[in-house]
Amino acid sequence: MINPPSDRRCSNFALRSKDRRRSLSFGSRIRVVACLRVLVCFAVLVVSFTACASSTTSASASNTQTVTDAAGRMVTVPLKINRIVMVGAPPAIDGFVFAVGDENLIVNGVPKSFSDSHFGWKILAPRLVNLPDVESTITGPVNPEELLALRPDVVFADVPALADQIQHLGVPTVCITEEHPELGQEIAAAKLVGQVLHKQQAAAAYADYFNQNANLVRQRITSIPPAQRPSVLYLSTMPFRRNGSAMVWVLNFLGADDVAGSAPPLTQFTTEQILNWNPEYIIAHDPLDVSVITHDDVLKNTRAVNSGHVTAIPQDLNEWGDFGVGDALSLLWTAKDLYPQRFADIDLMSQARTFYARFFHINLSVSDLNEILYGIGGSKVNFSH
Questions:
Q1: Exposed, middle or buried: residue 53 (CB in 10 Å: 0-12, 13-18, 19+)?
Q2: I want to staple 190 with a disulfide (CB 3.0 to 4.6 A). Which of 168, 203, 344, 353 is the partner?
Q3: Helix (H, G, I), strand (E, B) or coil at 377
Q4: What is the pLDDT of residues 157-212, one digit of tens each?
Q5: With contact defined as beta carbons under 8 Å apart, do 157 and 166 qualify?
Q6: What is d(CA 118, CA 286) in angstroms, rounded to the nearest whole number?
């Protein structure tokens, strides 16, 4: 049997219990404060880490942008671009970089065989003539070592397959166009280049210029009856073939009868087939083609040759009838060629001078303009045209 404690013992017990409670309460408070301090420190570390991570992510994200190219490919490119390589068909796509004002960023040239035969490079882009090539020929295989040695921040290509090949080298590659024969492909290409290079305003200026020309032409040809719209063939020689896709939409826009119909670019024709079509106009792909066409034993019997309606389309970095930035002028030139009375007031010399001053940032001499409009590199210009 346990005896109950005496009053004194109870009193001492109570005092000791009270002291222990005070002691425990004080210790607990110390531990709570310590825990709170640890929690606060941990929270600060978490916030700091999160802020750092967020800052790093933000900084990383701000160094790139993702664009959708002409082939529907999602491509992540640097925000700051200092070096550009052009592959596939530089004649067709270099001009769009010129049009937005960043031609000084291009670090590769064009194959010498092409720049030697296309005088526009020496007139409009002399810096690029002697730069390193990454292709031995236009649309030829790309040399990976030479391309990587140029340390490009971005590569512009003209076809999706080539863009994919370059992308696998670890270099962001944007496909500018798939060369669909339709109005607006050049505008879309300029806007895409403008987006990548942050030159949207310059790209919009090119689009406005292009649309102004298209609207002018559309207004003047609307009332032309179908019977007065000529049959036309855009023709390259050696071999005889259709070149490029731009002239397809140009002729369609002008309501002309494109005798080659839906034949894709590079389709070859026999002279007998051309004679059977018997076009009223032949637009030659190159000034040298004119002589071949007019002196051919079969083609000399066509209406185009007999009426003197065989004319070479102008060239700058590329033929105006092929895809390129010059298609804004090609539309005017072709309209004037096919409907001379409707466009008698259009001065191609003045139009070209304005275009190259605005979009190639160069004031051309009369001699240079004549070379682009009528001549071929280094030859005598036919001023009687």
A1: exposed
A2: 203
A3: coil
A4: 998 999 999 999 999 999 998 766 677 889 999 999 999 999 999 999 999 999 99
A5: yes
A6: 10
Domain parsing of the chain, residue ranges: 64-202, 224-348
Candidates 55, 109, 102, 70; CA nearest to 87 is: 109
- CA 348 – CA 329 distance, rounded (Å): 8
Residue with the two structure tokens 């030659």: 284
pLDDT above 80: residue 381: no
Nearest to 324 by CA among 313, 312, 332, 316: 316
Q: How crowded is residue 300: how many other Cβ atoms within 10 Å of its Cβ?
A: 14
Q: How many CB atoms lie within 10 A of CB 95?
A: 28
- Is the predicted pLDDT of residue 58 greater than 60, yes or no? no
3-state DSSP assignment of residue 141 = coil
Count Cβ atoms below 10 Å from residue 184 Cβ, excluding itself.
14
Is the CB of residue 77 less than 8 Å from the CB of residue 65? yes
* Centroid of chain to Cα 50: 39
The pTM is what?
0.80
Statement: residue 237 has pLDDT above 80: yes
Q: What is the pLDDT of residue 43?
A: 41
- Give the Cβ contact number of residue 336 at 10 Å: 19
pLDDT tens track for 308-346: 999 999 999 988 988 899 999 999 999 999 999 999 999
Contact predicate 355/329, CB 8 Å: yes
Q: Which residues are CB-contacts of 19 (< 8 A; sequence separation ≥ 6)? A: none
CB-CB contact of 204 with 194 (8 Å): yes
Nearest to 189 by CA among 151, 152, 156, 227: 156
224-348: which CATH topology?
Rossmann fold (3.40.50)
Whether the per-residue pLDDT at 28 is higher than 50: the answer is no
CATH number of the domain at 64-202, please?
3.40.50.1980
The Cα–Cα gap between 139 and 187 comes to 22
Contact between residue 54 and residue 46 where contact means Cβ atoms under 8 Å apart: no
pLDDT above 70 for 123: yes
Give the tokens for residue 274: 């051309």
